[in-house]
Amino acid sequence: MRTILLIEDIKSMRNAIERILTKAGYRVVVAGDGEEALHTVQQSIPDVILLDLMLPKLAGQEVLKALKRNPATVHIPVIVLTSLSQKNEYRLRSDGAAGFLEKGDLLNNPGPLLNTLREVMDDHFRRQHSGAAFKV
Questions:
Q1: CATH number at residue 51
Q2: 17 and 106 in contact (C-beta within 8 Å)?
Q3: Is the pLDDT of residue 119 over 70?
Q4: Residue 94 and residue 90: Cα distance in Å, rounded?
Q5: Residue 118 vs residue 135, higher pLDDT
């Protein structure tokens, strides 16, 4: 079973997304702020991270940078969840984000969330295993 770390500060949104992911067969670990997220990721290394940008204590972009600087977490794909426009997408991708999802209609239409998760995990799996095939 794949594990997803969901980092979202709004409890109702966090609970709703957790239900969607659990129903889809994922194991979900949650964090409500940036500092808790960095602690939680060390305790339970997830397969994918869903990261809200607007977080208390430590902003989502700072969490992303910290995850990508840490050798233990640099390999984990991070999908950014945001209610903001994607004007910062280039900067976030250069910081290591693997994908983006707007939170707007996420609860009414979870299809894009589940599709993005599958795509990111499949791509990550392919990249990990294609490199391993060429090692001598």
A1: 3.40.50.2300
A2: yes
A3: yes
A4: 6
A5: 118
Long-range contacts of 105-113 (CB under 8 A, 24+ apart): 106/17, 106/81, 107/13, 107/16, 107/17, 107/20, 110/20, 110/24, 113/17, 113/20, 113/21
State pLDDT tens for residues 8-42.
999 999 999 999 999 999 999 999 999 999 999 99
Q: Round to the nearest angstrom and report the end-to-end CA distance of the chain.
A: 30
pTM value surpassing 0.90: no
Q: What whole-number distance in Å separates Cα of residue 3 and Cα of residue 47? A: 5
* pLDDT band with cut points at 50, 70 and 90 for residue 85: low
Residues spanned by the domain of 123: 3-133
Hey, is 55 helix, strand or coil?
coil
Domain count, the chain: 1
Measured between alpha carbons, how far is 57 from 36 in angstroms, rounded to an integer?
Answer: 9
What tokens were used for 72? 């233990």
